[in-house]
Amino acid sequence: QGQVAEFGGGSVQAGEALRLSCIAPRSIFNINAMGWYRQAPGKHRDLVAQITRDGNTDYFLDTVKGRFTISRDNAKNTVYLQMNNLKPEDTAVYYCNPVDPEGLVRYDYWGQGTQVTVSS
Q1: Mean pLDDT (10-residue bins), the chain, 120 residues
Q2: SS3 state at 18
């Protein structure tokens, strides 16, 4: 039934912005909320932001609050992560995946991710 595909990463300077996109098959896109995650070298994969099927954005990692926003286009099966004022500590591979806001179900539709590198 396919996997998600992430796009939009790159190498930028601190203070610049990037917009990531994630496209998923409809069966995955509608399974639950969608989340953006990131994993830096040698670290765990962390949930960065999530958006419910009806557009509620009720979770952001503390270190990205006020800088990152998440949105979705249900007609295009796409979820976006707008990252402003990027910092070197935002350097990571970014992934998207369905997420259960209740934390009861784990999903495994991981794509290849997209690399974000922020230099000072």
Answers
A1: 88 98 94 96 96 93 97 96 98 96 92 97
A2: strand
